[in-house]
């Protein structure tokens, strides 16, 4: 009996609300719909929060991972610099020939303020990038051609074996005699030194493509140009970039040695002149600059490699 009275009271309130609001039927329907959806929304809200975390949380996790990775990589460098600073001060080495890192840093700042470091760095980068770029433009297409067409490989293999075993620095006097002591000889020696890592790695990349992929592509009636474009080139990219990264390191090392002979500008010239003038801190400042440039150049090539190999599935799950 009491239940019937409560039901009647609820009905009276609903009728009264509808009568006073002028839009009572729709109001009651909306209230009923909201009452029905409320438990469902309450159940779905936590699930959505778990499945779709907010962007600030994702960004915070990425930032923490990057900071931890950077900290792990910088520990060894910091330990080396600390050892470099303390060893001369505690007379473990002669500070005349190995000054503390703080003195080298002061000399580096002095070179920056005088403009010598910028001028010499620009001269070295111009030569190095010119020879390296020419090596990439020549080495990659030629390596693809030699690796893909066996007759071309048979024709050029004796020359490749001859020149690949001839050190670039051993030919430096020849380049200087033929091309002079100007920019042409320095760019040419960098080109020669960088060409072989790129060329040989490109040839190896083409020849090491999985034969199953080639047979599968031929079973789909792909023409030779399409097969080369869709299968050979993508599969060769990682090994080709290995050669390019090796050539990037070689371009700086060979250039520094070339700039020590008959050059009037460049980091190699700066190091050599500092040694002759017994400006040991400036000499080490030039060496540190070359190391930093090499690291930055390698990281740029690694980023470029990741861009061109983004289609590859990551290893290790």
What does the model show?
- The structure is a single chain.
- This protein is mainly alpha-helical and 317 residues long.
- 83% of the residues lie in helices and 0% in strands.
- The longest helix is centred in the last third of the chain and has 36 residues, at 224-259.
Q: What's this, in brief?
A:
With 317 residues, the protein is mainly alpha-helical. 83% of the residues lie in helices and 0% in strands.
What descriptive keywords fit this protein?
317 residues, mainly alpha, 12 helices, disordered N terminus
User: Structural class of the helix and strand makeup?
Assistant: mainly alpha
**In one word, what is the shape?**
flat
Rg over C-alpha atoms, rounded to the nearest angstrom: 34 Å
Number of strands: 0
**Uncertain stretches of 5 or more adjacent residues:** 1-27, 42-51
Biggest sheet layout:
none
Pattern of helices and strands: HHHHHHHHHHHH
**What is the residue-mean pLDDT, rounded to a whole number?**
79
Range of helix content: over 70%
- End-to-end Cα distance: 67 Å
How many separate helices? Answer: 12
Amount of beta strand: under 5%
